[in-house]
Amino acid sequence: HRLGYATSIPGDATTISGDATTIPGDATTIPGDATTIPGDATSITGNAITVPGDATTIPGDAISNPGGATSIPGDVSSIPGIAASIPGDATSIPGDAPRIP
User: Fold this and answer.
1) Is 98 inside a domain boundary?
2) Number of CB atoms found within 10 A of residue 5's CB
3) Which pLDDT score, from 0 to 100, does residue 46 have?
């Protein structure tokens, strides 16, 4: 593991600096089934990634999510499913993330 990249963020990753805005709760464990996202999150305006079918696998760079997807209405603070394993650049979060205890 290179210094400066948090490949493992233990505990409560409440704030991830950058465009990821604020992820409340424990982002390391996301339980349940991501096929059902409550609230108005079924329509995400902007240039957001279209996640077809089972949202357990989000390909590409999950950090850069342009458009109006920074503010997703509804109860998406607890996104169910195996979404903890997001392939792409999500394992390397540059910025202040390495200093999360």
Assistant:
1) no
2) 13
3) 45
